[in-house]
Amino acid sequence: MSVPLTLLGLLEREPSHGYDLKRDYDTFFNRGKPLPFGQVYSTLGRLARDGKIVIGEVEPGVGPERKRYVITELGATEVDAWLTEPVEAEPNLQTILFTKVVLSLMLGRPAEEYLDMQRAAHLKRMQELTAIKRGGSLVDALLADHGLFHLEADLHWIDTTIARLDALRKVVRR
């Protein structure tokens, strides 16, 4: 997740205070892992330094002054370029799970047991995502679907790999 570009996108929607940006980011983009306030303000500082945002209105607050941040043309151009650029197709072909399977076979360890444990972890996470999907908003449901579809693909890979373990064992133990 690109925090700077996401904050720029939120600012293109409307000028905002740091607190409001954090709230919107946490609401829509960062389920289960809130964006720290320090990261919000350090990111805003870098964006201002780089000319992508400016500080608009400054209002007195209970604590420090409340600054309203405004996106610049440079920042809007960067958001537009980012939004129109396709996301790199995932996953790449070197995954941790694949590496663990190959190493366990090379070392004579029980790869099938490891894959069974991974399947159980995936199924548990799928149950959690299904609960989120059932009890959450449309945003929650769409994010949960994204995770569920990836986990389903992983489960298919796990089953296919288990079926081919003997052949893979021969290849990696040469």
What does this protein structure show overall?
The structure is a single chain. 67% of the residues lie in helices and 9% in strands. It has eight helices and three strands, in the order H-E-H-H-E-E-H-H-H-H-H. The protein has helices at residues 3-13, 18-28, 37-49, 73-84, 96-106, 111-135, 138-163, 165-172; strands spanning 16-17, 53-59, 66-71. A hairpin with a 6-residue loop joins strand 2 and strand 3 (66-71). The radius of gyration is 22 Å and the shape is elongated. The protein starts with a helix and ends with a helix. 17% of the residues are buried. The mean pLDDT is 90. It comes from Dactylosporangium roseum. This is PadR family transcriptional regulator. Residues 111-166 form the Transcription regulator PadR C-terminal domain. Pfam families: PadR (PF03551), Vir_act_alpha_C (PF10400).
Neighbour order of strands in the largest sheet: 1-3-2
Rg (C-alpha, Å): 22 Å
The percent range for helix content is 55-70%
Order of helices and strands: HEHHEEHHHHH
Distance between the termini: 41 Å
Tally of contiguous helical segments: 8
Counting DSSP E segments of at least 2 residues, the number of strands comes to: 3
Low-confidence stretches: none
Largest sheet: 3 strands, antiparallel
Quaternary status? single chain
Shape: elongated
Counting helices, strands and paired strands, the structural category is: mainly alpha
How much is the average pLDDT? Answer: 90
